[in-house]
Amino acid sequence: MLAGRVVGTATATIKHPSMKGWRLLLVQPTAADGRSPDGDPVLAVDHLGAGIGNQVIISSDGKHTQSVLNDKKTPVRWAIIGIAD
């Protein structure tokens, strides 16, 4: 799990069938201070309704992502699993 901030959205005209209908958000992982960038931004699927500027928690847990997308063969790695208050 990583903390991050949503910095943008992404669209794709062609994507894996498991991603059809899902929002793709660009998330910048952040350091422990919650502000400093920590690595490269990642693309994450969102099923919680996060928006640009939200602090989120992302996970690369394949089982969770497979469960959320209801597809055991999805290529999606990152998913938003929480929105910070």
What does this structure look like?
- Helices cover 9% and strands 38% of the residues.
- The chain is mostly beta strands.
- Strands 1-2-3-5-4 form a five-stranded mixed β-barrel.
- The two termini are 17 Å apart.
Topology (elements, then pairings):
Layout: E1 2-10, E2 23-29, E3 42-46, E4 55-59, H1 62-69, E5 78-83
Parallel strand pairs: 3-5
Antiparallel strand pairs: 1-2, 1-4, 2-3, 4-5
The end-to-end span amounts to 17 Å
User: Helices and strands: which structural class?
Assistant: mainly beta
Neighbour order of strands in the largest sheet: 1-2-3-5-4
Secondary-structure element series: EEEEHE
Number of helices: 1
SS strand fraction: 35-45%
Summarize the structure.
Helices cover 9% and strands 38% of the residues.
Question: Top keywords for this entry?
Answer:
mainly beta, 1 helix, 5 strands, 9% helix
